[in-house]
Design a protein that fits this description.
By secondary structure, the chain is of the alpha/beta class. The protein has nine helices and 15 strands. The chain folds into three domains: 2-91 and 178-186, 3-Layer(aba) Sandwich (D-Maltodextrin-Binding Protein, domain 2), CATH 3.40.190.10; 94-169, D-Maltodextrin-Binding Protein, domain 2, CATH 3.40.190; 197-275, ACT domain (Alpha-Beta Plaits), CATH 3.30.70.260.
């Protein structure tokens, strides 16, 4: 994937609008390219990849303050695509409004639910109506076109610049060390010598000790887990898909053999990708 950062010949899809944090992640990973497709929903990115309209997609998958973005985890399983890279972005949310807007003018605030969650301590004592919107950048675009000083949004400073909005309050997210992890989505697994992180999803027999036994394989093979996330199996109440990230490269025979051992003990197992980590 390193060489792809300089190849402008293919189109990249991303969730949100220009000046969104996802667009920032795209630019930092691939370089400054205009050959992009903006998508209003996470699913739209996966649909564009499935249809061949784009070669890669960029979506958020995890925030250091609010945790995993469950819709994206489910889409990986539904579509069968792979993680081929990742980019971590420091996220700082600002309250934006039309030029001259004051705090006392505001009655409604628009943004993505993640921005509301990450700014909840700032918002909890405000008597404002919080209105979920497609993305932070789209909410900024909407405010710029609304002409209403009673409406504000939570978005990035880049969005304020792009849509000619005032920054009314800076850095309103409660965690100042706030990062979002974005993943690069591709149709095929891409194995490279520099890849050092593996993502998998699996299910297990609903029996005592099965998860503990599987985790023992990670310990016994010296595989350092960085994340474990569970998602419900909607057709089987109280059973779960387990998503695990761990360090390793599948070109290494010992790592490959360890993954084979783990796969053999699972009811269902899927490799989600082997790529270069960008954790801060």
């Amino acid at each position: 994937m390193e060489s792809l950062k300089h190849d402008k010949s293919y189109k990249i899809g991303f969730y949100g609008e220009k000046a969104s944090f996802t667009h920032q992640a795209l630019q930092e990973y691939f370089g400054d390219t205009e050959n992009v497709l903006s998508c209003s929903k996470f699913k739209d990115v996966f649909d564009a990849l499935e249809s061949g309209n784009i070669k890669y997609g960029v979506v958020p998958i995890e925030n250091s303050s609010t945790g995993g973005i469950t819709d994206v985890y489910d889409l990986f399983r539904d579509y069968g695509f792979y993680i081929v890279g990742e980019k971590c972005i420091h996220v700082s949310h600002d309250l934006l409004g039309l030029r001259g807007t004051k705090l006392d003018d505001i009655t409604e605030v628009y943004s993505h639910n993640q921005a509301f969650l990450q700014s909840r301590k700032y918002l909890e004592n405000k008597n404002w109506k919080l209105i979920p919107y497609f993305s932070t950048a789209k909410s900024a675009k909407y405010i710029s076109e609304s002409g209403c000083k009673n409406k504000a949004c939570i978005a990035s400073r880049k969005a304020a610049e792009l849509y000619n909005l005032d920054v009314i309050e800076k850095n309103i997210n409660y965690n100042k060390n706030n990062y979002t992890r974005f993943v690069i989505v591709g149709r095929e697994v891409e194995l490279n010598s520099y890849s050092d992180k593996i993502s998998v999803v699996f299910t297990l027999e609903h029996k005592v000790g099965t998860l503990c036994n599987i985790l023992g394989y990670f310990r016994d093979n010296n595989l350092n887990m960085t994340k474990i996330e569970s998602r419900p199996k909607i057709d089987t109440p109280w059973e779960y898909f387990f998503y695990i990230d761990f360090y390793g490269n599948l070109l290494n025979r010992e790592v490959k053999d360890a993954v084979k051992q783990i796969r053999s003990k699972c009811k269902y197992f899927k490799l989600l990708g082997n790529y270069k980590t960008d954790l801060k």
